[in-house]
Design brief:
globular; four-stranded mixed beta sheet; alpha+beta
Length: 121
């Protein structure tokens, strides 16, 4: 069952601002995920409750998060718990990993998508 997508005008403005201020690393990841290159559609800076997901595949309820040095482990744990309550799987990828091997990141994301698709049958 598809989830209903609703957002406030403020969330739309914030998501747009986040997309426009994306780092080079985040832009690299978007190049992997855009245009259904992984076989599923992703959104950038998708709002879910009080949070904005870096990349989100609504069909699989999969969030791909780019984690840099600025991430706070406690905040991320609360956020992940909130998302888990909504049955959203979070795949966290460190910035350093993206910068070292974008190809490996693509393989990791593709592997997770394939696992999720197999589970769905």
């Amino acid at each position: 069952m598809a989830e209903k997508f609703t957002r406030t005008p403020e969330q739309t403005r914030r998501a747009r601002a986040l997309r426009q201020s994306a780092s080079k690393t985040e832009q690299k990841v978007w190049l992997l995920l855009s245009r259904k290159q992984m076989g599923v559609s992703f959104r950038r800076q998708h709002p879910v409750g009080p949070y904005f997901l870096d990349y989100y595949c609504p069909a699989l309820k999969l969030a791909v998060e780019v984690d840099g040095d600025w991430h706070d482990a406690e905040h991320d744990a609360r956020r992940d718990a909130f998302l888990a309550e909504r049955e959203i799987t979070v795949l966290r990828i460190p910035v350093s990993y993206i910068d070292e091997s974008l190809e490996s990141v693509g393989e990791q994301i593709r592997g997770e998508i394939e696992r999720m698709l197999k589970r769905r049958g």
